[in-house]
């Protein structure tokens, strides 16, 4: 029999550990890329289901990076296990998003202050009315300061976290309605991350990179995506090592 893991879907390898702040891209291969290109001495701590997770050093401080998979069910499963079983205190999602506001352009970084969603996830919190999935203010402020210092074109606003990448009924015009109430971009995880952090009494932030525009049809080439992701990752890493955690 193997060792007993405290969690169902992450199995931290013997002799490794998870840092108190974790960066989470949707794609586990992006986690590997970040570990290999940005972290000193990265050590693989998880590879269950190929959801690669590494811990290393950035600016001399420990930080982890691990894939979340796509969509709220996948991200919230991993985020809850990290928060509840591995001592993680803050998660920063680093993901791509489709622009919906006219003011948002490809390559922009978008800091998600809040996230509206069509997911039923918040129903489980069972509070009368609607819960407002919101970023941690301290992390949001730090990310904004880092982006300003780096001179990166950055927006702060509300995103739409959708359970659908492909809507089965296009006539619902969901992206048009999201745009009409001022939501800036669409992606698939942020609301779940913020609600999980809220329920687990932890901190979270989504730092997004605009990879395409839903209405203008503008989209980046793979090389351009790599360059704009670089800015998002730098902002997220600088925020991670400045996030207040327990000693
Ligand atoms: O780039 P990532 O982090 O995967 O995020 C976006 O890309 C995926 C869809 O292509 C969804 O996960 C969406 O949220
Ligand atoms: O979820 C996503 C991510 C990028 N672009 C989109 O249109 N949707």
Which secondary structure elements does this structure contain, and how are they paired or packed?
Blueprint: E1 21-24, H1 28-38, E2 40-46, E3 53-58, E4 61-66, H2 72-85, E5 90-99, E6 109-117, H3 137-150, E7 154-161, H4 174-180, E8 185-187, H5 190-200, E9 203-213, H6 222-242
Parallel strand pairs: 1-4, 1-5, 5-9, 6-7, 7-8
Antiparallel strand pairs: 2-3, 3-4, 5-8, 6-9
Helix pairs in contact: 2-5, 3-6
The structure holds 1-O-phosphono-alpha-D-ribofuranose (R1P) and uracil.
1-O-phosphono-alpha-D-ribofuranose (R1P) binds next to β5.
Description:
Its EC number is 2.4.2.3. Residues 20-234 form the Nucleoside phosphorylase domain. With 247 residues, this protein is an alpha/beta fold. The protein has a single domain (21-242), classed as Rossmann fold (3-Layer(aba) Sandwich), CATH 3.40.50.1580. Helix content is 32%, strand content 26%. A hairpin with a 2-residue loop joins strand 3 and strand 4 (61-66). Helix 2 runs parallel beside helix 5 (190-200). 1-O-phosphono-alpha-D-ribofuranose is lined by residues 25-27, 70, 95-96, 165, 187-189. Uracil binds at residues 96-98, 165, 186-188, 211-212, 214.
* pLDDT averaged over residues: 95
Order of helices and strands: EHEEEHEEHEHEHEH
Beta-strand share of residues: 25-35%
Instruction: Return the CATH topology.
Output: Rossmann fold
What's the end-to-end separation, in Å?
35 Å
How many domains? Answer: 1
Query: How many β-strand runs?
Result: 9
Instruction: Give the CATH level 1 class.
Output: Alpha Beta
Overall body shape: globular
Small-molecule binders here are: 1-O-phosphono-alpha-D-ribofuranose, uracil
The residue ranges in which pLDDT falls below 50 over 5 or more consecutive positions are none
Tally the helices: 6
**What share of residues is helical?**
25-40%
Specify the biggest β-sheet: 5 strands, mixed, barrel
CATH superfamily: Nucleoside phosphorylase domain
Strand order of the largest sheet: 5-8-7-6-9
Question: Mind telling me the C-alpha Rg?
Answer: 17 Å
How does CATH name the architecture?
3-Layer(aba) Sandwich
């Amino acid at each position: 029999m193997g060792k007993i893991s405290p969690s169902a879907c992450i199995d931290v390898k013997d002799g490794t550990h998870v840092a108190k702040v974790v960066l989470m891209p949707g794609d586990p291969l992006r986690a590997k890329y970040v570990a290999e290109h940005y972290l000193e001495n990265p050590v693989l701590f998880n590879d269950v289901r190929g959801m690669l997770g590494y811990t290393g050093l950035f600016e001399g401080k420990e930080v982890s990076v691990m894939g979340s998979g796509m969509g709220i069910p996948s991200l919230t499963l991993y985020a809850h296990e990290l928060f509840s079983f591995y001592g993680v205190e803050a998660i920063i999602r680093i993901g791509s998003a489709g622009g919906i506001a006219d003011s948002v352009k490809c390559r922009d970084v978008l800091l998600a202050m809040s996230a509206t969603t069509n997911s039923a996830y918040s129903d489980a919190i069972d509070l009368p009315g609607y819960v407002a999935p919101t970023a941690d203010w301290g992390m949001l402020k730090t990310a904004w300061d880092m982006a300003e210092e780096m001179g990166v074109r950055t927006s702060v606003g509300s995103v739409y976290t959708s359970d659908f990448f492909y809507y089965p009924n296009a006539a619902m015009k969901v992206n048009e309605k999201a745009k009409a109430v001022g939501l800036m971009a669409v992606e698939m995880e942020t609301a779940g991350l913020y609600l999980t952090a809220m329920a687990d009494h932890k901190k979270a932030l989504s730092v997004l990179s605009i990879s395409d525009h839903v209405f203008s049809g503008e989209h980046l080439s793979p090389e351009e995506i790599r360059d704009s992701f670089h800015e998002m990752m730098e902002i997220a890493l600088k925020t991670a090592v400045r996030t207040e955690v327990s000693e």
